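Structure (tokenized):
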């Protein structure tokens, strides 16, 4: 499974021309299983592909565990000899001041950090850990919000600086890869909080559709 998964990752990246040899790539790493798998995969290929990878970690300061997760990601980067760059913001305060949901406020601050890092370090791409399950959840979210046909496209594999090299993989495959490699990662407790619509789609709607309509 690990070798097959790695080859699928390489094939997907080649098929979509996600990066070139010698590129400088920022990896968005939160510490969760998806992003830690992303880091492991790029660590496997960086020498052969002559890639310079920089881990970008954004601390949203929303949970008591946030500082520990930042320290955890930094420790892994030090062990791997990977450059680590981080920033933080009071996302809850930004949400209140701007009249945004926590999810939207977090995204605004996170992507502002990514854009600033891209300029500061002259990055060719920024890779995020979005997977095939995230894709399904995004499309369902767009449908529920009354999206037109453009919303059915979901998360693009590549748009501007941003690449999503894990869109080929289901979450269960990523978890199996992480288990096989004994990858350390941190569980974000907020991912189970059904006060967030995205989590209700993930934990209630999607399992219902898979069970009652189509397992795929």
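Design, position by position:
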């Amino acid at each position: 499974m690990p070798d097959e998964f790695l080859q699928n990752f390489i094939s997907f990246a080649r098929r979509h021309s996600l990066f070139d040899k010698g590129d400088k790539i920022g990896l968005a790493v939160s510490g969760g299983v998806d992003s830690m798998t992303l880091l492991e995969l790029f660590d496997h290929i960086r020498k052969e592909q002559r890639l310079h990878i920089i881990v970008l970690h954004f601390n949203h300061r929303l949970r008591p565990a946030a500082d520990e997760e930042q320290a955890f990601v930094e420790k892994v980067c030090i062990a791997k000899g990977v450059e680590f760059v981080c920033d933080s913001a009071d996302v809850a305060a930004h949400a209140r001041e701007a009249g945004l949901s926590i999810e939207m406020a977090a995204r605004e601050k996170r992507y502002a950090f990514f854009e600033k890092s891209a300029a500061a370090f002259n990055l060719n791409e920024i890779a995020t850990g979005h997977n095939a399950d995230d894709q399904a959840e995004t499309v369902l979210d767009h449908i529920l919000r009354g999206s037109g046909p453009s919303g059915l496209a979901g998360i693009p594999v590549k748009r501007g600086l941003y690449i999503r090299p894990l869109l080929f993989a289901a979450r269960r495959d990523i978890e199996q890869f992480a288990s096989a490699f004994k990858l350390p990662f941190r569980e974000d407790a907020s991912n189970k909080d059904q006060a967030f619509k995205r989590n209700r789609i993930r934990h209630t709607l999607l399992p219902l559709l898979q069970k009652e309509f189509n397992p795929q």
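Reviewer-requested clarification: The chain has a mean pLDDT of 91. The longest strand covers residues 52-59.
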